[in-house]
Amino acid sequence: xxxxxxxxxxxxxxxxxxxxxxxxxxxxxxxxxxxxxxxxxxxxxxxxxxxxxxxxxxxxxxxxxxxxxxxxxxxxxxxxxxxxxxxxxxxxxxxxxxxxxxxxxxxxxxxxxxxxxxxxxxxxxxxxxxxxxxxxxxxxxxxxxxxxxxxxxxxxxxxxxxxxxxxxxxxxxxxxxxxxxxxxxxxxxxxxxxxxxxxxxxxxxxxxxxxxxxxxxxxxxxxxxxxxxxxxxxxxxxxxxxxxxxxxxxxxxxxxxxxxxxxxxxxxxxxxxxxxxxxxxxxxxxxxxxxxxxxxxxxxxxxxxxxxxxxxxxxxxxxxxxxxxxxxxxxxxxxxxxxxxxxxxxxx
Length: 348
Ligand code: NAI
Ligand code: MG
Fold this sequence. Notes:
By secondary structure, the protein is an alpha/beta fold. The chain has two domains: about 180 residues, 3-Layer(aba) Sandwich (Isopropylmalate Dehydrogenase), CATH 3.40.718; about 140 residues, Isopropylmalate Dehydrogenase. It is about 40% helix and about 25% strand. The protein has eleven helices and twelve strands. Strand 8, helix 6 and strand 9 form a beta-alpha-beta unit. 1,4-dihydronicotinamide adenine dinucleotide (NAI) binds next to helix 4.
């Protein structure tokens, strides 16, 4: 089996973590008699400085026949953030209509968690990725005057809720069969009551999934108090953004948090660590490559190689049991290279 992927290492520690993750993905694929055919793309900050644009105009077309994209990070101190974040990663998510953002969070033996009780956490945040409070609808008037006004309108539409919800219910079927819809429908009476109604309809198609509705403030408290009881969290764009950062630090930090942006039923998706380009540690060889490797495992799983994905996760778990492999963000003195070779060695 041949899996054609594209790789965008990007800026800062992006190329460092991608370089550490790729050999692991190649080795895991090979163990399943598959070969990764990689299209390497130099999109990002340097290209922006050289040509005025972080990626070519026909970017979506260039990667459209690839089954998946592994992305590192963008952002460099000498280029305004919005040029690269909006000019590359957000633009790609929009052009490929990547409607759902998946952010799995779990704890790992040997890795300290921010809370005593966060061991054995294993949850999946399914975040609607295109509308809600981030739809970009609104305006600002009377600029600079005493009555200056800003209006930000949240947009929630039935088809968009439906596609995110179906994806979340299917994910719950493959996990513990429990799903929590996160809303604020006690205080916001229009958009989030639509979420409640649509999700109840979809729930009827999935009688084997237990579905509860939880208000976002209560969910934030529960994630701190009893994170172990949670499995799939279905969230709007804003709530998913906030809760996934909370969940990530609960269980090991930004260097451990992977994500996938997918268009349900279509390829390519973009698989990327949640973290950014970390200019404060770039070039020192200490970036934690696990978030990128775990994003790569999600890529393998969605590309028809679930056994290769499981191998990657097992090798990471094994490597993390030895504190000598831990990078400084995990409290250790290990390097990217040391952690990466421990994972690679564990693949056998
Ligand atoms: P950041 O995630 O790059 O860094 C936040 C903190 O976490 C830093 O102290 C960093 O050293 C640490 N950190 C992050 N990833 C790490 C890893 N793998 N190993 C060890 N430590 C790690 O976020 P920040 O500082 O807000 O943004 C830096 C740049 O990245 C900005 O230009 C920003 O726009 C960009 N960015 C890009 C994203 C993307 O490409 N998807 C996402 C978030 C930020
Ligand atoms: Mg965020």
